[in-house]
Amino acid sequence: MTDNSVDEVNNNHRKRRIALAVVGLVLVAGLIAGFLLIQYRKTHITTDDAFVRGSIYQISPRVSGTVLKIYVRDNQGVKSGDLLLELEPDIFREKVREAAAALQAEELKLLELQSTVQARKKKISAARANLNRVLSARGELKAALKAREAEIGAKSALLKKAGIDLKRAERLIDKGVIPRDRYETAETVYETALAALKVSKALARQAGIALQAHASVISQADAALKAEEALLNRLKAAVKTQKKVIERRRAKLEVARLSLSYTRVYAPVSGYITMKSVEKGNTVRSGQPLMAVVPLDGLYIVANYKETQIERIRPGQVVRIKIDSYPGKNLSGKVDSIMAGTGSSFSLFPPENATGNYVKVVQRIPIKILLTKGSDRGNILRVGMSVVPTVVVQ
Length: 394
Description:
The chain is of the alpha+beta class. Among the domains are: 59-89 and 265-291, CATH 2.40.50.100; 91-261, Helix Hairpins (Orthogonal Bundle). It has helices at 3-43, 90-175, 180-261, and strands spanning 44-46, 50-53, 57-59, 65-70, 77-78, 83-87, 264-266, 271-274, 283-284, 291-294, 300-306, 318-323, 326-338, 364-371, 387-392. The strands form 3 sheets. A 7-stranded antiparallel β-sheet has the order 1-15-12-13-14-11-2. The chain has a 4-stranded antiparallel β-sheet with strand order 3-10-8-5, with no helix packed on it. Helix 2 (90-175) runs antiparallel to helix 3 (180-261). The longest helix is centred in the middle third of the chain and has 86 residues, at 90-175. The model has no long low-confidence stretch (mean pLDDT 84).
């Protein structure tokens, strides 16, 4: 065997040993990698069926009208309270003016009614005072009648005494016991007492007639007072009714003012304008979606894990998140909650498995993942992005 042949054999042996060493190293590396992968999968659960979710605020007008101005464009950042668009306000301003004028007219009617009520109260006071005067006069008439009746009694007694004296004088004069002039005096006293009694009776009759006539005056005064009081009650009822009318008019004015304020549409939250579908001059309806505002500070992730993966997943566990759009960017978060059902259970048409052709399919259960505060510093996430979350279960 020549030296060249020996060298060639040695080289072949060396290459074989190197190849075997490389294969051995590859096998060892594969075993180590497999072992590490198995250990990793024991403590890390990953899915690529995960998406970024967030709140989407639909912007719709509360009143119908024509778009006058638009102050934003697609993908523009806005702050809560920023003016987004404005509708033509002229019609709504006219409604406010009409409602204000109607309210003012009703308020003037109320003032007139209240003024009439005050005037009627004064008339009632006068009617009550008149009734009191009439009642007081009735007392005076009763006292006068009583006095006349007492006077009749006294004068009747005087007449009776004068009659007795006159009869005695007649007997005595017939016997010649008394002189003629004394008899005439007794006769004069009797006639005077009789005349006085007649006068008293006449005055008593007049007092009685006056008292009876005064009763009708009292009735008239009382009726006048009651009529004024009834009118006052009707006026008070009218005032209450008018106040209710004013309340309704005031409510209509408030509605008109609110409708006018609704012609200016503001951002409900801070975020970015998306899905803008309105232009200046468009006629829009109340409740019609015109655009949306998406805030980026409240984004979260919904990861749909297989039902065979969630056994060890618990709220509060750390989550590492890879973003398809940014391969070199990783975020962190934590498990917030696990949905109380599979995704298919809440679909529009849930699966019906009561047939003979059932094929078992592994279900997926949505898990909500919250981002760690400050993790998405550059606000790179967008609603709907695909991500790959990994839950660290150990």
